[in-house]
Write a structure and sequence with these properties.
- With 100 residues, the chain is of the alpha+beta class.
- The chain has one domain (3-94): Alpha-Beta Plaits.
- The protein has three helices and four strands, in the order ββααββα.
- The protein has a four-stranded antiparallel sheet, with helices on one face.
- The longest helix has 8 residues, at 87-94.
- The chain is globular and about 35 Å long.
């Protein structure tokens, strides 16, 4: 299944950093998110786009994981030459991740 089958995302961006929250539709699926979405796996999924570390914070009360993606916006939205390099594009891409 794809991540989008069990979760949705919310994002924010500031400077060259993007924050990305993955929220389970059903809190019972939070354990799957915790198991399959490590900071390392998210960073590997964005290889070539995220050039800094990825930090993961668990929010079990909300059924969510929050990721901070450093050096992910080409210097920042207003400095990047990339077309629409905002965090919302990153979240859409993350939802294509395969969950076993």
């Amino acid at each position: 299944m794809l991540l989008r089958d069990i979760a949705h995302t919310r994002t924010g961006d500031k400077g060259n950093r993007s924050t990305l929250s993955v929220i389970a539709y059903d809190k019972q699926d939070f354990a799957l998110l915790e198991q399959h979405l490590s900071a390392e796996r998210v960073q590997a999924h964005f290889a070539g786009t995220v050039h800094g570390p990825v930090e993961r914070y668990a929010l079990p009360q909300l059924g969510a994981l929050n990721f901070v993606l450093h050096q992910s916006l080409g210097g920042g939205v207003t400095r990047s030459l990339a077309l629409d390099a905002h965090g919302k594009c990153l979240s859409a891409h993350l939802l294509t991740l395969v969950i076993e």
